[in-house]
C-alpha cells in the first residue's frame, strides 16, 4: 500500500544592503497542517546586531506568509473531509 503526503516548505532571508543577514525556514505536512516547524539562523551576526528591528520585522512578515499558507491548507483539508463524508 502506497501512502503519500505532501510537505510544504518555505525559506526566506532578511537582506540588508544586498547582504543576507538572517535565514528563515518553515515546514508542515499536508496531512497535519496544524503543526509547523519554524527555524531561523544568523548568517551575518554583526549586521544582525546592528539591524535587529529590521530582521525581526522580516521574520514576522515571513511567519505571516507561512500562516496564510497554513490557513489555506487547513481550509482545503476541511473541504476535502466534507466532500468525502
What does this structure look like?
By secondary structure, the chain is of the alpha+beta class. Helix content is 46%, strand content 38%. The protein has two helices and three strands. The chain is elongated.
Q: In terms of topology, how is this protein built?
A:
Layout: E1 7-16, E2 19-29, E3 32-42, H1 45-50, H2 52-84
Antiparallel strand pairs: 1-2, 2-3
Using the CA coordinates, give the radius of gyration.
Answer: 17 Å
Strand order of the largest sheet: 1-2-3
Mean pLDDT: 91
Q: In terms of structural class, how would the helical and strand content be classed?
A: alpha+beta
Total number of β-strand segments? 3
What's the shape? elongated
Q: Determine the number of helices (DSSP H or I, runs of at least 4 residues).
A: 2
Biggest sheet record: 3 strands, antiparallel
> Uncertain segments of ≥5 residues (pLDDT<50)?
none
Separation, N- and C-terminal Cα atoms? 23 Å
The secondary-structure element order is EEEHH
What percent of the residues sit in helical stretches (DSSP H or I)? 40-55%
Q: How much strand? A: 35-45%
Task: For this entry, give a set of tags.
85 residues; 3-stranded antiparallel beta sheet; 2 helices; 46% helix
